[in-house]
Amino acid sequence: MIGILIISHGNLAESLIHCATHVMGKKPELLGQVGIGMHDDPATVLPDALQLVKDLDQGDGVLILSDIYGATPCNIVGKLLVPGRVEGVAGVNLPMLVRTLTYRNGDLGKLVEKALSGGREGVFHFTEEACKQS
């Protein structure tokens, strides 16, 4: 099973895990988080994040999800990447997280694609017409 780590601003990662636990009915295994506070030093957070990656990797790799590309959490992710072993995707949202939790028993590269599609397909313009069709 592929481990999943969320690195984000503030309590976003913790909140996403709480919501995913609600949606899925139980707390998913091999799922961790790091919340970056306003005053956190990335150099101090990096060793803890590296240890979490090691703890979450049970042999199938780790997918790290982050919130805003180019921001501090994402910059930390960039220092943890190992191609084919530890991959990263920015723009995490609840549909992306649920999709990755559902499809993480396969290949890490395919899970990256599932994360991207889950994030994109979970975002749409909510209209009255769309509501009538469902």
UniProtKB/TrEMBL annotation:
The keyword Membrane does not apply. Residues 1-123 form the PTS EIIA type-4 domain. Gene3D superfamilies: Phosphotransferase system, mannose-type IIA component. GO terms for biological process: phosphoenolpyruvate-dependent sugar phosphotransferase system. One of its GO terms (molecular function) is kinase activity. SUPFAM superfamilies: PTS system fructose IIA component-like. It comes from the Bacteria. InterPro entries: Bacterial_PTS_sugar_comp (IPR051471), PTS_EIIA_man-typ (IPR004701), PTS_EIIA_man-typ_sf (IPR036662), PTS_IIA_man (IPR033887). It is found in: Cytoplasm. CDD domains: PTS_IIA_man. One of its GO terms (cellular component) is membrane. Its main location: cytoplasm. Pfam families: EIIA-man. Keywords: Cytoplasm, Kinase, Phosphotransferase system, Sugar transport, Transferase, Transport. This is PTS fructose transporter subunit IIA. It comes from Methyloradius palustris.
